[in-house]
Amino acid sequence: MRFIWHYLKKYKKLGIINVISVFGFALVELGIPTIVALMIDNGVMNNDAGYIYKMGAVMITISIIGVCGTILLGYCCAKISTCITRDIRNDIFEKVQSFTAYEFNRFGVSSMITRTANDAYQIQIFVNVLLRTALMTPVMFVASAFMTAKASIPLSMVILATIPIIILGVVYVAKKSKPLSTNQQNSLDSLNRISRENISGIRVIRAFHNDAHEQDRFEATNEQFTGYSKKLFKLMSLTSPIFFLLMNLAVLAIFWVAAILIEQGSLPVGQLVAFMDYLFHAMFSVMLFCTVFMQYPRAEVSAKRIEEVLNTKPLVENPKNGVKEGNHEGTLEFDHVTFVYPDGEEAILKDISFRAKKGETIAFIGSTGSGKSTLVNLIPRFYDVSEGHIYIDGVDLRDYDLQALRSKLGIIPQKAVLFSGTIEDNIRFGKEHASEEEIVEAAKIAQGYDFIMDKEQQFKEEITEGATNVSGGQKQRLSIARALVRKAEIYIFDDSFSALDFKTDANLRKALKRVTKDSIVMVVAQRIASIMDADQIIVLNEGKMIGHGTHKELLKNCQIYREIALSQFREEELANE
Ligand SMILES: Nc1ncnc2c1ncn2[C@@H]1O[C@H](COP(=O)(O)OP(=O)(O)OP(=O)(O)O)[C@@H](O)[C@H]1O
């Protein structure tokens, strides 16, 4: 409830209008039966047509006020509940932006989507019901209970007897529905995860003939989700008929007592009609309140799941008053860096030290799993070092404002990711206000210009979801162009040349040389040919630097580098270098 209150506070004005319309609505709902009673007892019984017309006019006026109140109430409830859901979604999205891979792994992408969409929607439903009924029902209940007691004390006693039974029933339903709601939301997470995996991995599933297995897996989880949903709906749908049964029994008892009272002459007929109306409102208020109470556990589960995301402290935090610029020398330095993944035990990088300056290309090579990607991922602070320091222009990365730090970098990740939109949009992602010339130049350096011009719409060609209408190499070239357009101080090519053919790779490196004179270029590669021109090459093995030098130096003094080189070139080719 604290969570919902936190968001409700923002909409105070609408909340006040909501409360006023609730009171107006209650006044109208209870005013009509009073007028009907007066009409019957004073007008019909005394044959006074003038009195009936007068009361009829009052009734119409009150009804019009009632309609206006109801419309206003509906408007306020809808506006507040949808705005709150929008705010929650925005907050989740903003929070998720600050997450590192560790937090993503902790929640899972599918669960994060369910929390943003489905859990936020559960809150919307609850807030809507809460504003519409939770405020109205106590008002209606107290007022109609007062009116029923005023109309007839003996008849009111009959209703009083049914209330404890209703309360007990509601508490029982609320207790039962909470674990069911938790299980339902968790199985929805699993269902989304399997759907996601199946849709994105459809080609692999088909290639391995695993369609039937995946179908079974999906059906089992779907069955589980349906099971929990059915139980929950059953529980909810049973409450309504049982409640009406109770209400009808109470009505029966009331008529029985009323018949005796009328016969004794102590209850006028008009009072009975009004009483039945008050009773209906009182009971209906209780029922509506029960609905809020029964929906509360579901909303509570969703609120907890959302709060879990919002209260997560990311491993990497933006420092307050972070440094925006260093000494402008154009240097990058690793100083005795050791790194252990947050959920790991062993160090993946051990005591790494090197220095690079602008205009230089520094390359990293080593067997798979030796820590190359981990090393370059420390520069944009996807993770923080466990020991040691990394400096850019003499400033420790942890002291930089995160946005300022990342704006210095042009990253080309191992797996190229493109977004839906045009080719131009995707390149512009690197620099929002890039001119057309800059975009074309970036595409040319990335060796992407020719294939872009071959497309029907050229730079305006739409990239489909999942970038299925471009090849692996084309995707990679677009992601290189996206990084180049920002004219970064440090470029990080994380095995980005592997999807390119040898000729394109060579042309790209040649073109890069021209435009990266004032930048540091970091290249992670598997192919010696891609890095042999680098100013420094670092050879990694099980997280340790086992070689550091130029291609020629390493051929002479690093056994592992020589072995890698010999696996890709003949001895004579290396000798001719
Ligand atoms: N998020 C993570 N949590 C825990 N361990 C990880 C994580 N990411 C990578 N690792 C481990 O860290 C080690 C180094 O991985 P990394 O991706 O840096 O290697 P690499 O040299 O880039 O390999 P490749 O050439 O195959 O890309 C591997 O043993 C890997 O299993």
UniProtKB/TrEMBL annotation:
InterPro entries according to UniProt: AAA+_ATPase, ABC1_TM_dom, ABC1_TM_sf, ABC_transporter-like_ATP-bd, ABC_transporter-like_CS, P-loop_NTPase, Type_1_exporter
TM spans (from-to): 16-40, 52-76, 125-147, 153-174, 238-258, 278-296
Domain ABC transporter: 332-567
Keyword Ion transport: no
Signal peptide residues on this chain, from the entry's feature table: none
Taxonomy, superkingdom: Bacteria
Keywords: ATP-binding, Cell membrane, Membrane, Nucleotide-binding, Transmembrane, Transmembrane helix, Transport
Domain ABC transmembrane type-1: 16-298
Bilayer topology annotation: Multi-pass membrane protein
Keyword GTP-binding: no
GO cellular component, one term: plasma membrane
Name of the protein this chain belongs to: ABC transporter ATP-binding protein
Native organism: Amedibacillus dolichus
